[in-house]
From TrEMBL:
<feature type="domain" description="YozE SAM-like">
    <location>
        <begin position="7"/>
        <end position="65"/>
    </location>
</feature>
<protein>
    <recommendedName>
        <fullName>YozE SAM-like domain-containing protein</fullName>
    </recommendedName>
</protein>
<dbReference type="Pfam" id="PF06855">
    <property type="entry name" value="YozE_SAM_like"/>
</dbReference>
<dbReference type="InterPro" id="IPR023089">
    <property type="entry name" value="YozE_SAM-like"/>
</dbReference>
<dbReference type="InterPro" id="IPR036806">
    <property type="entry name" value="YozE_SAM-like_sf"/>
</dbReference>
């Protein structure tokens, strides 16, 4: 599942949207928990986007990831 999330992040990173901005931040985050579970990743992103005021973008990203998996 994490590999699919990574693929999703890379696939949207070149778009021109707030979601792709978040994807690019994820890609350069040296502390990003790639080696954990998808739930840990969601928690990490939920926390950091809440602190940064972009949690709405995170919510959209998670919904679009669910669609990507279908």
């Amino acid at each position: 599942m994490i590999e699919k999330f990574r693929d999703f992040i890379f696939s949207i990173s070149n778009e021109d949207s707030a979601q792709s901005d978040l994807a690019r931040h994820i890609m350069i985050d040296t502390n990003f928990p790639w080696d954990t579970s998808i739930e840990e990743i969601k928690g990490y992103l939920d926390f950091h986007t809440s602190m940064g005021g972009t949690n709405d973008v995170f919510q959209i990203l998670i919904k679009n990831f669910a669609k990507y998996l279908q």
